[in-house]
Amino acid sequence: MPANSNPQYHRLANPRTQTQKDAKMQNRTKEMWGRGNFGSMLPSVAAWLGPLAETREGTEFSTAIPYARNGDPAWAIWYLPEHGGHPDVNKREVGAHTYASVKIEPIKNRYRCKP
User: Fold this and answer.
1) Which regions in the chain score pLDDT beneath 50?
2) Chain centroid offset of residue 92 CA
3) Which of 31, 48, 64, 113 has the fewest CB neighbours in a 10 Å radius?
4) Per-residue model confidence (pLDDT) at position 79
5) pLDDT of residue 2
6) pLDDT for position 13
7) Residue 69 to residues 13, 49, 64, 79, 85, Cα–Cα distance (Å)
8) What is the pLDDT of residue 1?
9) pTM
């Protein structure tokens, strides 16, 4: 567990949604952003519970913001407050897209290849 003792989460490397470039921006801004999951129109941030496995590529982080209960014991999702999420989940507007955002503490990034 990181020094701040908040729960750990991770996102796996993905050429569309979690690139090395994304990870660098997340480290710099200390924010994790997300749009709707699995075709949902509700902006949300999603991540797997627990640390990033040593054999996988991606990013690992912690946050003090509790995630919404979603029925999947391995998955964390943070929704905007207007959709029943925690009040510390922020809305970010970029062009025609709305994102949810949570403050994070980056722990590690492991990417073997460029985005």
Assistant:
1) 1-2, 115
2) 14
3) 113
4) 95
5) 46
6) 92
7) 24, 12, 15, 10, 10
8) 44
9) 0.87
Nearest to 42 by CA among 92, 80, 87, 72: 80
pLDDT of residue 73: 87
Q: For position 107, what pLDDT does the model report? A: 95
HEC string for the chain: CCCCCCCEEEEECECCCECHHHHHHHHHHCEEEECCCCCCCCCEEEEEECCCCCCCCEEEEECCCCCECCCCCCEEEEECHHHCCCCCCEEEEECCEEEEEEECEEEEEECCCCC
- Please tell me the total number of residues recorded for the chain in this structure: 115
Phi, psi of 104 (to 5 degrees): -130, 165
Q: Are 40 and 85 in contact (CB under 8 A)?
A: no
Q: Which amino acid is at 14?
A: N
Of the candidates 52, 45, 24, the one whose C-alpha atom is nearest the C-alpha of residue 103 is: 45
